[in-house]
Amino acid sequence: MTLPVLGAHTFGFAWDCVAEDAIERLAAAGYRTIQLMATPPHFDPWVQDAARTRRIRALIERHCLSLLALDLASSDINLASPSQHVVDFAVSSYVATIDRAAELGARWICVGSGRRHALLAKANDRLMVSFRDAFARIYDKAERAGVPVILENHPQGLLASAADITRFLDAEGYAGMPVIYDVANAVAIGEDPVEGLRALWPRLGIVHLSDSPKGQWRHDPIGSGEIDFAAIAALLRQRAYEGRIVLEILSDQPLKDIDEGAAILKRQGLAFSLAG
């Protein structure tokens, strides 16, 4: 049986060190699969700096790392704004990030759905029109660049649940698109992550793991919240998951908490490989 590959996200390092330092620290700790947060001051995708991307790519190659995807910070963009100017900025931001992803040799570009209206649900159908067009523009650019889209569930987004994602991908002709399923994002909307994983199973490209109290949106160290990782581990083991698992933990000591999270998952019976 092929074991799932465990990797780490640089999001937890984003405000404390540049991408190069985070990559070096994760590589030194034995991680060979990474996901990169593309936000300043960590890594600015809007700045085209060929010398820097060459240095980072050389660093990735020197340590034999696999760069799964680049992520834009959801706080910086909105693909479902009622303002076309905002949507155009968001699309152009993804275009720049796709270019950086291609330069770095990333496998995917991570895209989340545009933000839904939290107080006026009836506006969401109209916001979906903006998002649908923006997503198609990003998809086309990504395909041309050879860095395909991977779609992530997001608690503030129009596609917050596993069912939302399934309906959208099927209806819009993206049935073969892979998905990142973030268990903490699911818990934030009251979705059972085990059920969400089951619903999206054929589409799973990456599973994001972090902890959270129920009903809150957090990415805390594993074991500090209320997410049932034993149940998640059991499902991944029973169904022989062979994809990527990424620890995306936000804390004051991200590397320590990533390492401890990996140890907890092992104790929960989840076997994995660190080889990319």
TrEMBL record:
It holds the Pfam family AP_endonuc_2. Coiled coil: none annotated. This is Xylose isomerase-like TIM barrel domain-containing protein. Residues 24-267 form the Xylose isomerase-like TIM barrel domain. Transmembrane segments: none annotated.
